[in-house]
Amino acid sequence: MVLLLFGPPGSGKGTQSGKISHWLGVPAISTGDMLREEIKAGSALGSAAKSIMASGGLVGDDLVNRMLAQRVSLPDCAHGFLLDGYPRTVDQAEYLDNLLATRQFHSPIVLHLDVPMDALVGRLSSRRQCPQCKRIYNLLHQPPRTPGICDDDGTPLITRRDDSEEVVTERIRTYDEVTRPVLAYYQDRKYYQIRGDRSPGYIFEEITGILEPVVAKNGSSCCAKAAQRGQKL
Ligand code: ADP
User: Fold this and answer.
1) pLDDT of 65
2) Is residue 88 flagged as an active site residue?
3) Which of 22, 136, 225, 226 could form a Cys-Cys staple with 231, CB 3.0–4.6 A?
4) Closest CA to 10 of 197, 189, 143
5) What are the two backbone dihedrals, phi and then psi, of residue 57, each rounded to the nearest 5 degrees?
6) Which residues pair with 194 in a beta bridge?
7) In the annotation, is 160 catalytic?
8) Measured from the CA of 7, which atom of ligand 1 is nearest?
């Protein structure tokens, strides 16, 4: 099973992708996280991406497509995976279709987290993230138990550099202009729109409600079990 999590910056993709990945036993792949790792490592890709990400634009399709293809060719993706933040352009969507066809995966299931635009800037400015395990907190709605510290591994939380108001505004504009049109590409596929302006637990219940029949149809209670049997969902 290949899942695509769609939604504007601050729509809760990262939070839901962690929950879904844990529930289904498939890896969650965030191209944003991967690019931040490349920057941290000081790679050529990282230095190409750095200033683009800092300004809220999109990294070039060729670079991101190549990075994604490498990641999904790793063994943990053999039976399915979840993509958070990819594809973000029609070119990337076409590239992904070819890639999935080559690997004999079914067409992806698209989950679109829809959040009113005026709620996003506030959400992002109160967001904090654990740089170690990538868990996302929100100072208003989901604060850590100890201020500034990750509940799971005790790492000091960080504010993403591109969560400043100016860059957030540009990221939202880029989403509206370039990424929202990608949704039209998937309209006639397995496409589900989900209201993202509710609690993370409620949204996750809706997502499991959507996915359970698909998982059940494939004769398994979760993908991990299917993976053990060498079956693609
Ligand atoms: P958000 O969805 O909140 O904007 P991400 O972590 O998904 O955050 O992305 C952060 C930045 O990484 C984006 O603003 C963009 O510059 C870059 N990026 C991530 N994914 C892609 C992609 N698929 N194509 C191009 N650029 C990307």
Assistant:
1) 98
2) yes
3) 226
4) 197
5) -90, -170
6) 113
7) yes
8) 2
**Residue 229 annotated as catalytic:** no
**Catalytic position from the list 13, 36, 128, 135:** 13
136-138 and 127-129 beta bridge pairing:
antiparallel
Residue-level length of the chain: 233
Q: Report the C-alpha gap between 193 and 152 in whole angstroms.
A: 31
H/E stretch holding 184 = helix 180-186
Rounded to two decimals, the pTM is 0.88
Residue 107 CA to ligand 1 center (angstroms) comes to 23
At 91, which amino acid appears? D
Of residues 106 and 223, more confidence is placed in 106
pLDDT in tens, 136-146: 999 988 899 99
Separation CA 207–CA 40 (nearest Å): 33
Instruction: Give the max Cα distance, the chain.
Output: 49
Q: Which residues pair with 138 in a beta bridge?
A: 127, 142
Give the pLDDT of residue 233.
52
Residue 55 has pLDDT above 50, yes or no: yes
Q: How far is the CA of 22 from the centre of ligand 1 (A)?
A: 22
Question: How far, in whole angstroms, is CA 160 from its chain's centroid?
Answer: 16
Q: Which class for 61: exposed (0-12), middle (13-18), buried (19 or more C-beta within 10 A)?
A: middle
The catalytically annotated residue of 88, 123, 128, 135 is 88
